Fold these 3 entries.
Entry 1:
Amino acid sequence: MKILITGGAGYIGSFLVKALADRQNEVVVFDSLERGRKEAIDSRAVLFQGDLKDKAALQKLFSEHKFDALMHFAGFISVEESTKNPDLYYQNNVVGSQNLFEVAITTGGVTKFIFSSSAAVYGNPTKIPIPEDHAKNPTSEYGKNKLEVEKILSDLRIKHPHISFAALRYFNACGAALDGSLGEGHNPETHIIPLAIKAALLQKDFYLFGTDYDTPDGTCVRDYIHVLDLVDAHLLSLKKVSEDPNGYFYNVGTGKGYSNREVIDEIQKASGIKINIIEKERRAGDANELIADSSSIRNEVGFLPKYSDLETIIKTAWEWHKKQS
């Protein structure tokens, strides 16, 4: 297949590019490189540099290439930043996505879409683990963005019944390649695992935001999913939308949560380095606990996480970041 990956210079996108190329697919990456890393893109992929807000660039892309499927990862991802600068996030994440889908369908004739969504669409859940039909009350602009894009896809399928999509609601993506070749390197970095690892490597203070959450140890509890398992979820979902056209919404997680303190403890164990923790006020928009009910994707596409135990997550992440230091 010939597949377009938007945001292919980013963390999860770069893993999908490699996985698809390994399986003999032809891959084109569309990325502004504003926050992505060009060096993370597999050499077998073609890079088309552009911005989703630029319709002319998208028209050029889809007039030059004919794609069998589109996987959409491009988007800003910081909950905190989205709260401080909501218009930046709306323009990039919502308007950009709308442009992409519209041009992909009308100019490119694309019928198969995989969208990188988020558990942030749920907000503070009233039921744990969280099923896909749980009420959607996002507490951040980022979560609102993801929910709006899901609605755009649903509306497009009503207008164009021949298209098929899967929106994958990630819980906490993490970890690195087993051989240390790829890992998590955002700019700016906001995720706890790389931030805590960098604090250990550089012997700098680590800021722990929020110790008064309604959780057993007072820190946020999250369902962590290894990036290699996320890759598998995308490949299985692409097969699903190809063989059984419809609109699907899947949680991608493990059903088990770890607190921020547990994550930091595991990093200290893997590194042998004690991290100096400075406790800070909680960040706006962070939910107490997010744990997935991922039974739908397990039952419907056969998804089974293999690398998402905390020890493997931290060990792979530590080895990759150590190589970068």
Note: The chain has ten helices and 14 strands.
Entry 2:
Amino acid sequence: MHILIASRTQIPVLTYGGTERVIWDLGRALVELGHRVTYLVNTGSSCDFAPVLHINDHIDLRLQIPNDVDIVHFHFCPDFDLDQEFERPYVYTEHGNSAHRPRLPLNAVFLSQNHALRHGSSQYVYNGLDWRSYGAVNFEQRRTYVHFLGKAAWRVKNVIGAIDVALKSDQKMSVLGGYRLNLKRGFRLTISPRIKFHGMVGGAEKFALLNGSSGLIFPVRWHEPFGLAVIESLYFGCRIFGTPYGALPELVPPDCGTLAVSADVLAQTVQTQRVDPQECHKRAVELFGAKNMCRNYLAKYDAVSAGEQLNVASPQLQPGFRDLPWS
């Protein structure tokens, strides 16, 4: 099968990476299973295992799709109606909470069961990562701090709440994905020397920081569609302390951490809860690997190639997905 992966992102991943990391690992897994992959992505992209086409905004996107492609996997919503104005088999992955789009394409797929249900759908594929690129985990290393991982400038990620939990539990914290002074969403300046900011880190620096942490503090205030930060942290044997919103209850069982809407509750469990780091690691490897994601998408590809529609009606986001309670 020849799959075109279309995304308005640049590959490969250089720092934080979300959608970029997922589509890279999906494409590589498809190639390793014997399929052909072509990327249609932003200018500046390159890839060593699949051809890359660069999106030209001056040409109709439909004219940029090679004739021999069997299925197009969109990771963004194009500016034409996929159900009425596109004649090829397609799958569309919604990576966020689609508040700015009233209705999504019929072949929309979501990132978790909760993500799908909140759009009136049952179609989802868990994100997966190629853990080979993360290297081995040193379970003997001393864990001397907790961490936050995410785009700290996004208020829904609640880095302020994460810092509060760390300070209440008398922990040092490394913030991956943010800076001590933030002016993008109002004014935030963190004074405490116990909180260290590392900016938008990636690669070996990021992996080393995760391997030195005892747990992820992740008190998001929206329904998280998936949570790559969660599975990356699990891979490195970290406990997860977050809110029970969105996909988090699907990713974090009780033996891998605690979910609560209270900083005091999370702070207490950070101090007292003990989990087996190798069980956290095992969960990430067995459930959230790129090969699992790839096989699940192949089932969707086969269905739409056979003429099926994944959803009976166009999925639509239900209201109330952000600014969720936190105390």
Note: The chain has a mean pLDDT of 95.
Entry 3:
Amino acid sequence: MNSMTAREAFLHLKTRLTSVYDSNEAANIADWVIEDITGKGRLERLTSGNELTGEMRQRLQKAEAELLQHRPVQYVLGKCYFAGMELKVNEQVLIPRPETEELVEWLVQTVQQQQKPNIIDIGTGSGCIALSAKKYLPSARVTAIDISEKALAVAKENAVRYGLDIDFLKMDILNTSALQELPLFDIIVSNPPYISPDEKDSIQPNVLDYEPHSALFVTDNDPLQFYKAIARFGETHLAENGCIFCELHRDHARATRELFRTAGWHTELRRDMQQNNRMLYCRR
């Protein structure tokens, strides 16, 4: 890779990425990568004629090769942005999505008047939900559970970075006997696995090949598997006047709501920015 300025590097990478992504996404990814490598934003790149150092060119070459293999840019850079925080991410955790920010926003708006709510985040992954709940509800006590020790390590690192006090526990929501030791919670929140293995063919390669399958796929071909477990957990571990917030698979949103309704919950289904049914609120 010959010498080039930051602007030339951006144009080069954007052109290369159009073989994998549409032009808008290729431009956005190239912009993020070049800014991360050079420390220069879009406007600075237009006016700066400084060439990339040898180390910068090496980083660019490595990033380009990985991106052309469909590796998500968040894993390439080792970070993503969520609720005003820069979070560490790697292949041990799902990449947080904007829809999940909407779920957290709904949760915070709903319970912000409560004094010291006790919150549990089921399947915390990077910790994005637990961290943002604690950030915006500082008086809350937040517990975050995950079946993956490696995911918990990432979440703990993110919590330490922002000085957020969260109880992290290695625990499987499908193992009801292990859950008995947990206290009552005012809020249960989760973005659980909800994709059936037979849907694999419809998943984009950048998701299927890199993101952790344990966080994506149910284990028994029932897309409602984890919602059933969350409903059972709510029966025994939700305090009086408590509530549940869940992120949903848009194709199974109504079925998920019906699952809770049938079990005696009052429910509210909410659309995301793309106008898909993606969030559910439940209370007794």
Note: The CA atoms of residues 7 and 47 lie 9 Å apart.
